[in-house]
């Protein structure tokens, strides 16, 4: 759906504005070199959240996929700044194409959180589809096509997060609920800005600056939508910790920005397992004869109670992946998630 600017409200643009969409905010009204002032600078909040989340993800070892996911949100924010600041077609692509790719990365983060990597076909689907959609969008230049495609991506991410609810640590579930409400509010404001533009524009012009900024609903879409994406990826990170048997704490900065912190003792028990690569390699050669031996060795290697009995020559490794737990291993050490190299 297209939005319309109030006729005659904008100053003469210093360059050709050839974007496929012109939102409800008046163009070049505040600064002569910024097309939509509020829609441009509202992305600073989203960018700040994403950059901070990248630092948090690195500090607490969320994993590379989540650092990339938060980085995708940051790139979307930068692209949105460029688009709304210029209203040119190529800058519009820098806003919309990263949205497709970032949603694909978020999908990847949500698939089979207990595994080191999702199945190959799901990886191709989650990351390949955005590229296909981008190619089609570049050829048809229909904004509604992009909006529907991106909406389907978001619904897929929401569905995956719902399916992961059972393995999500209890403190983190509120993050997903808050993300849903934030995105629902953002979507409502986006539609209101589009549908009610002709009614809102006279009111905004009557209010004048800076008060009219409160009614720039697309800018609020950026704030709430970026916040929802931040919360959604944080929840996905908590789900992955939970699927690996690590409980988390949710800390809150300034009562508004929550973030996930894994409990150190439990993460240490999972990440600092003893290297069983030699035994695992042998099991791949003779799976049928060595299954019980491998399971017993892994039990000794991973279960904290058996670490002391493990061979001293075994070296410790980090970031080892998940696998299905055998019955024997569950009985040997039921409190911990089982891992392999």
UniProtKB/TrEMBL annotation:
Alphabetically ordered keywords of this record: Calcium, Hydrolase, Membrane, Metal-binding, Transmembrane, Transmembrane helix, Zinc
Transmembrane regions: 62-85, 145-163, 175-192, 219-238
Membrane topology, from the record: Multi-pass membrane protein
Any single GO BP term: ceramide biosynthetic process
Names of required cofactors: Zn(2+)
Record-level GO cellular component terms: endoplasmic reticulum membrane
InterPro entries: ACER
Pfam families: Ceramidase (PF05875)
Intracellular or extracellular location(s): Membrane
Similarity field: Belongs to the alkaline ceramidase family.
Protein name from the UniProt record: Ceramidase
